């Protein structure tokens, strides 16, 4: 790779600066911002380009219908909860869901956390008012604090450096769990240990028994299962804060191409996917696999234009569209997009985010979602793909491994009053551990029929 083209790639990374960047914090102190960016620019990458390339290959298999993508984690990670227990619980949930899907559908599952960087949030309103006092809205721990005080809500660029440190530590814990025997498929039962008599757990236990039996049989036949000790686990987040993403972008010494080393996978949110906006421009210049959220107002023209800009070479694995239509709209809007994608020969993989189009306020005032709507959107996503002959490639979820009460319904039938018991999220409601497993069983059934 010549020095000239490496320099050209570096300069190219500045093109977003003249365009409108929505949903950015108003950093009050520009010197603090410059200091934080320069610290990040001098810091080691969180992920290396080769690992992002590996994910791109796996996502190419997803686009072909040879693997299924499972992406999950908090709406907003927090610094306070980046401890080994919480991280372990999330990983265990995703691994259990993956086991259910792999077993049910006989299909490899690409596992990815909304983790190790999901610290910045787009908001509907810049300001929040409580008791007559108006302060900047909480925009995620990488921007400001959740406490409703002047001091805490002031955007602080130093939080990006802290977010970098915590993301690196989180990925370190993830690697320790997924590479150190915890993820060993021969321990499928242990992941369920300590849980109650909920139907999803009983069903999981049956699946685990069958897997155990199959492994014992194959071991007796002489198959070596050492490869099952570890799993590949990728991380991704919404590439919202352009100061952070730009400062962590590095030129890959192998190819001379830029990679955003803050995560393997970056996605562009529904609120920042304008074709002429700074987010689409910046991400079009990095070589990571990318996602774009597509909400119910997306037109086929918007979608094709995004693919032309972000994946002009139609490279399988480069682009994943994440449809978040809402249960009431998925059957009406998605067919037009899939027809156009098919007609234009787009290479994109398709995932469903059945969370963000189904947000409601409960009568007790909680921001919540109905588990039945979440399920219905997933079913609709599969129905539409089946009707058009395209590939339903994955699931993008807001979930946690903990026993929270944030989403209405599920086998434990969390009701309006029940939400108050353990409503812990700072932004959007997440499926709890057992609701996540219930959903995995449904998707496994859908995949068999797909
Ligand atoms: O996670 C998605 C958005 O950031 C979130 O739903 C916005 O929430 P708000 O409408 O409460 O600002
Ligand atoms: C902000 C999010 O979603 P969307 O961009 O789809 O609204 C999110 O995934 O938390
Ligand atoms: Mn969210």
Account of the protein in words:
The protein is α/β, with parallel strands linked by helices and 450 residues long. The chain has two domains: 3-114 and 233-449, Aldolase class I (TIM Barrel); 184-229, no CATH class. Helix content is 40%, strand content 13%. The chain has 13 helices and 14 strands. It has helices at 3-12, 30-41, 49-64, 84-105, 150-153, 158-179, 199-220, 242-247, 278-284, 300-310, 330-344, 371-388, 433-449, and strands spanning 68-73, 109-113, 127-130, 133-136, 233-238, 249-251, 258-260, 265-268, 290-294, 319-323, 349-352, 359-361, 367-369, 394-398. The strands form four sheets. The protein has an eight-stranded parallel beta barrel, surrounded by six helices. The protein has a two-stranded antiparallel ribbon with strand order 3-4. Helix 7 packs across helix 13 and helix 11 packs parallel to helix 12. The longest helix is centred in the first third of the chain and has 22 residues, at 84-105. It is globular. The mean pLDDT is 94. The protein binds erythose-4-phosphate, phosphoenolpyruvate and manganese (II) ion (MN). Erythose-4-phosphate is lined by residues 75, 121-124, 356, 427-428. Residues 75, 356, 398, 427-428 line the site of manganese (II) ion (MN).
């Amino acid at each position: 790779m010549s020095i000239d083209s490496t320099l050209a790639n570096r300069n190219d990374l500045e093109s977003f600066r003249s365009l409108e960047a929505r949903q950015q914090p108003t950093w009050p102190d520009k010197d603090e911002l410059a200091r934080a960016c320069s610290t990040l620019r001098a810091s080691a990458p969180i992920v290396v380009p080769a690992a992002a390339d590996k994910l791109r290959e796996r996502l190419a298999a997803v686009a072909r219908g040879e693997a299924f993508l499972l992406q999950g984690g908090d709406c907003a990670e927090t610094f306070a909860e980046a401890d080994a227990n919480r991280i372990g619980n999330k990983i265990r949930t995703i691994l259990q869901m993956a086991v259910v899907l792999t077993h049910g559908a006989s299909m490899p599952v690409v596992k990815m956390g909304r983790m190790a960087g999901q610290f910045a949030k787009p908001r509907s309103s810049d300001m929040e008012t409580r008791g007559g006092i108006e302060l900047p809205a909480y925009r995620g721990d990488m921007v400001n604090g959740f406490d409703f005080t002047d001091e805490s809500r002031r955007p602080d660029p130093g939080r990006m450096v802290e977010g970098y440190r915590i993301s690196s530590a989180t990925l370190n814990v993830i690697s320790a769990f997924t590479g150190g025997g915890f993820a060993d498929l021969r321990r499928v039962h242990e992941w369920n240990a300590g849980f109650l008599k909920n139907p999803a757990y009983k069903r999981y236990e049956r699946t685990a028994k069958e897997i155990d039996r199959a492994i014992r049989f194959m071991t007796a036949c002489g198959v070596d299962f050492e490869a099952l000790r570890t799993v590949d686990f990728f991380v991704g987040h919404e590439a919202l804060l352009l100061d952070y993403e730009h400062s962590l972008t590095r030129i890959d010494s192998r190819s001379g191409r830029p990679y955003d080393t803050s995560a393997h996978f970056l996605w562009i949110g529904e609120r920042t996917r304008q074709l002429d906006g700074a987010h689409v421009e910046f991400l079009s210049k990095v070589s990571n696999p990318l996602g774009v959220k597509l909400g119910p107002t997306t037109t086929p023209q918007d979608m094709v234009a995004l693919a032309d800009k972000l994946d002009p070479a139609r490279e399988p694995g480069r682009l994943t569209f994440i449809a978040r239509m809402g249960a009431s709209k998925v059957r009406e809007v998605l067919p037009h997009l899939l027809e156009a994608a098919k007609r234009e020969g787009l290479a994109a993989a398709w995932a469903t985010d059945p969370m963000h189009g189904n947000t409601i306020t409960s009568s007790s005032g909680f921001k919540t979602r109905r588990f039945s709507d979440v399920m219905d959107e997933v079913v609709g996503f599969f129905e539409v793909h089946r009707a058009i002959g395209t590939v339903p490639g994955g699931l993008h979820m807001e979930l946690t491994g903990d026993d929270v009460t944030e989403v209405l319904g599920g086998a434990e039938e969390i009701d309006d009053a029940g939400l108050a018991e353990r409503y812990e999220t700072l932004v959007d409601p997440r499926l709890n551990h057992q609701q996540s497993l219930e959903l995995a069983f449904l998707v496994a059934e859908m995949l068999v029929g797909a």
